[in-house]
Design brief:
alpha/beta; Beta Polymerase, domain 2; 321 residues; five-stranded mixed β-sheet; five-stranded parallel β-sheet; Rossmann fold
Length: 321
């Protein structure tokens, strides 16, 4: 199945994107909803919160008083981290269970507000970030959620900045106009990228890169895209290989085809063969070609042309011919 991470700053419209993806057929796993479920009355999560913060964070009915808890942890880094250690592992466990329960061929979208902040981006095949201008977000929070300007400003400032989100984003969805426009962009993403990406992933098929594709001007996105892809591979295979951005797009200021070339260096042919299945699961299926002892892989994502060469190297990094 295709695993997609969805995030965005408060007021950007992430929930509207999640609803539209659900209408198109995605399986939505809502981290906020699960964070509530794991601390419902009678759960061990709630019991641990009471132990950590006291009975003052409960309502008279014995449920979690979220405003009271929020007041306890807001602005207190140690308290926030203590709360996260209670909630995050339980949410991850629940997420894993729901993901495993999804039908084969599903596009599973994890709606995670703090995806960037907690370093989850590399665990997905694709990350979507919903963006909106700060002024638009402030207006939505005050008009639609009833926050004061000061409260809305504090909530925005407490989250990571737009630059960090953009760096983590394979796809940026801008949401500053009407709902119809947002839905059109989501539908285009669904049909042109997510559905074929899942099909390619399931069938072990990579996107063929046209060797005659035109040279284009240098794109500042190339090194960021390469960094995301390398982090994704590193997350999936561990520290068993040396992974580098190579080729024309790795050279600053140079025209190139819009293709990210990666080199994965391993010590032995057996290690190279052992990576084939894992790279396929991560979205980089094996393909014919490559000059022995190289193994060639390509990207299954139709929106990001990628070529990956797995190169057998000696123990000191010298290539084995």
């Amino acid at each position: 199945m295709l695993r997609v991470g969805l995030t965005g700053g408060i007021g950007a419209g992430k929930s509207a994107v999640a609803r539209r993806l659900a209408e198109r057929g995605a399986v939505i796993i809502d981290a906020d909803l699960m964070a509530r479920e794991v601390v419902e009355p009678g759960t061990d999560g709630l019991a641990e919160i009471i132990e950590a913060f006291g009975a003052g964070v409960l309502t008279p009915e014995g449920a979690l008083d979220r405003p009271a808890l929020g007041a306890r942890v807001f602005g207190d880094e140690a308290a926030r981290r203590r709360l996260e250690k209670i909630i995050h592992p339980r949410v991850r466990e629940r997420t894993d269970a729901l993901t495993r329960a999804a039908a084969p061929g599903s596009i599973v979208v994890n709606d995670v507000p703090l995806l960037v902040e907690v370093g989850l981006a590399s665990s997905y095949h694709l990350v979507i970030v919903v963006m909106a201008d700060r002024g638009v977000r402030l207006e939505r929070l005050t008009r639609l959620r009833g926050m004061s300007v000061a409260e809305a400003t504090a909530r925005i400032d407490a989250q990571t900045g737009d630059a960090s989100r953009r760096a983590a984003a394979d796809v940026v969805l801008t949401n500053e106009d009407d709902l119809e426009g947002l839905h059109a962009r989501v539908d285009e993403l669904w049909h042109d990228r997510l559905v074929p990406f899942e099909s390619n992933l399931r069938s072990g098929r990579s996107v063929v890169v046209d060797p005659d594709s035109p040279m284009v001007e240098p794109d500042p996105e190339w090194p960021r895209a390469a960094a995301r892809l390398i982090a994704r591979i590193r997350h999936g295979i561990g520290d068993v290989a040396d992974i580098q951005h190579v080729g024309p797009t790795s050279v600053p200021g140079r025209k190139a085809r819009d293709v990210i070339d990666l080199m994965v260096g391993v010590g032995t042919p057996e290690e190279a063969d052992g990576l084939a299945g894992k790279l396929g699961e991560l979205g980089f299926p094996a393909r014919p070609g490559g000059v022995p002892p190289e193994r060639l892989h390509g990207g299954a994502d139709p929106g990001r042309p990628v070529e990956v060469r797995v190169v057998v190297q000696g123990p000191r990094g010298g290539r084995v011919d």
